User: What shape does this take?
Amino acid sequence: MGANRKDMLFAYAEALRVLVVSLELPTDEYVRAWTDGSLAEGIRSMMACLDLKDGVQVAVMCALEECNVRPPVLGDLRRDHTRLFGHPKAPLVPFYQSQFLATQRGDEERPLLVVNRTALSLDETYRGAGLAHRPGSTVSGDRMDIELTFLAVLLDRGDVDRARVFVADYLSAWAPNFFRQVEQNADTPEYRFVGVLGDRKSTRLNSSHCIQS
Assistant: This one.
């Protein structure tokens, strides 16, 4: 694996970690990272290493610049997070693969969290890679941030074959639409940026562009 390829895999893993942090309930530390420019600087460095088409680079960088128009407000970010992901009955963008896909299909009955076919299959996948998902945890393994974290770990290991299969078997089924809906429904520029970065035209989660052999 050449240096450029290693840099690309590292940058792709970093993009996934930015998404993971951004999907958590915002904190003062997260707001400071936007305000002092450190998060934006890291994103610019990361984007320079990703093999993306010019139009994609422009879209991501334009979304990033929108975040610099005004300092973020913690309360605004938390309200947006709750609207998008945290509503107890009707989140705009369900955070779990099983529930997201059920919503897309228009199913009246939602799958159970933790105990559903997708979550159980993912738990087997995590264990197969030696990364058992939080023994005893009541958090379902089909949550977006957990899937992205697992993919980032695979890329850190250089386990490209397993990463490619994971994208094809799981993330490609919902990540592009998930992030597109985040972009479309976000009230804040920071969450619109998260949507753009996570969309298939940026990190290419649907086609695993950055991990093709």
